[in-house]
Amino acid sequence: MSAGWYAKGVVPGGVGPAIIAGHIDSATGPGVFLHLNRLAAGDRVTVTMKSGVVETWQVTGSDQSPKSNFPTSSVYGTTPTPALRLITCQGTFNPAIGHYDDNLIVFADLVSVKG
């Protein structure tokens, strides 16, 4: 499984929040963001662009919120510098609807670009 970039938003590394979403699991096994909840402020993540450019991002925090109360402005609101939002499901799985009750959003700022 791969993570997906929100194509109607900012390209990772551009000014503003770039959104990348991925599953924590599926009917066939673990997802790309299975351990996203382990990231803490100060941790670093990399994003490799199709061009081969590698961006390094530093986690500034995270937020777990019910899907019914998604923090839209915190995730999609404008920022004066490049920002990254990693989003997955979290909380209790509801088999009646086939989804988790919450979303986990990890916030990060750009540290470096190589390539």
Automatic annotation (TrEMBL):
Keywords: Hydrolase. This is Class F sortase. It comes from Frondihabitans sucicola. It comes from the Bacteria. Coiled coil: none annotated. InterPro entries: Sortase, Sortase_dom-sf, Sortase_F.
